[in-house]
Amino acid sequence: MKAPASTKGRERRDQILDAAASTLIEAGYADFSLRKVAERLGIRLSNLQYYFPTLVELLSALFTRELDRARERFEASGSKDLEALLAMLLNEQDDDGSCRLFWELWALSARNRDIADIMAGFYQRYSTAVESLIAQASPEMRPAQRRRRSVLITAMIEGLSLFRGDGRNPPGGDAALRREALACARTLAVTQG
Length: 193
Known about the structure:
By secondary structure, the chain is mostly helical. The chain contains nine helices and no strands. The chain folds into two domains: 1-53, Arc Repressor Mutant, subunit A; 59-186, Tetracycline Repressor, domain 2.
């Protein structure tokens, strides 16, 4: 779906995405639907479907917005290194809403192939960004190894949300986690490849 050209259309689209995220967090994936999102906004389903004809298109836009917002926050920070990215990602996990949103999206992707494909694309873009920062931190590392490391770091950071959501703290704290993730990113294996 193309983004609306008017300011009012963009604002309505953002309202729908906000309502979708809140509805998914509160109702859970099993009770999530376009109708529930429309009810939350107090609009007719057909009005919502003007912007997002299907649930898959709505969730695709939600994933894209989350990735774009994370990229914008990182770029606005002025930092261009892996440690700053890791710190930002860990800080975002302190927001229970962010963890809960992704828990529900993961659950949906386990049940819906289209959403699983959207999620795979999201994590591909995410790990590509991590890979470019690994290349800056360890330029001597081979591209294939950087790709593998970026996938592992992405999985570690995302998996941490299972230990960090609902106000829980990981063992050793954030500083220790950042050190370990950086060590993983920078350390060259005995066999390069």
